[in-house]
Amino acid sequence: MSEQNPFLVPAAGETSSGFAPEGRSVDAGRAIEWLKAGWGYFLKNPGIWIGVTVAMMAIGMVLSFIPIVGQLAMNFLMPVFGAGLLLGCKSLRDGGELRFDHLFAGFKQNTGNLIMVSVYYLIGVVVVSVLTFMVGGGAAMTGAMMGNGVGAGVAFSGLLFALLIMLVLMTPLVMAV
Predict the structure, then answer these.
(1) Nearest 5°: CA angle at 151, between 147 and 154?
(2) Which residues 6+ apart lie within 8 Å of 154 measured at CB?
(3) CB 158 within 8 A of CB 140
(4) Average pLDDT, the chain
(5) Cβ contacts of residue 62 below 8 Å, gap of 6+?
(6) Reported pTM
(7) H-helix segments, 8-148
(8) Which helix (H) or strand (E) covers residue 160, if one does?
(9) What is the pLDDT of residues 111-164, one digit of tens each?
(10) Is the Cβ–Cβ distance between 87 and 73 less than 8 Å?
(11) Where are the domains of the chain?
């Protein structure tokens, strides 16, 4: 049995974790396998999964009572909680168990990087929102200036176009997170 040297320099284009910056491709049918595996993880201990979900909802509700700061805190902490849950899934995959403390495991490693993911996401949302507002707001102003039934149609079609732009731009952003 050979052990991999943790101090070995990664090959070009790959990090020590197996991350390939250029990405990997898999068959579309793998999505069904991933969903089945996720359901299997849930069935291994549904009580803990439900408890973790309720805890995250409770944390979100408590933070939502704090104006502005609470919402920002929750947005910044979601990747940290998500990383902890992914560590729990890794534990299940490796034959271990999911524990309630996995929810907070993201605070033990790479916390700063996980919060930076939220910062980049927030910047992306602001950029997409500004672009969407520029398109939708422009259409609304044009429709208001026309002032007749056609103006309402122009405003509504501009709004739909703005929403389409938002959907197109938000999809890769959310996928990246």
Answers:
(1) 160
(2) 139, 142, 143, 146
(3) yes
(4) 83
(5) 70
(6) 0.67
(7) 30-44, 46-64, 69-93, 111-146
(8) helix 149-176
(9) 888 889 989 999 999 999 898 888 777 777 777 677 666 667 777 777 888 888
(10) no
(11) 34-109, 111-177
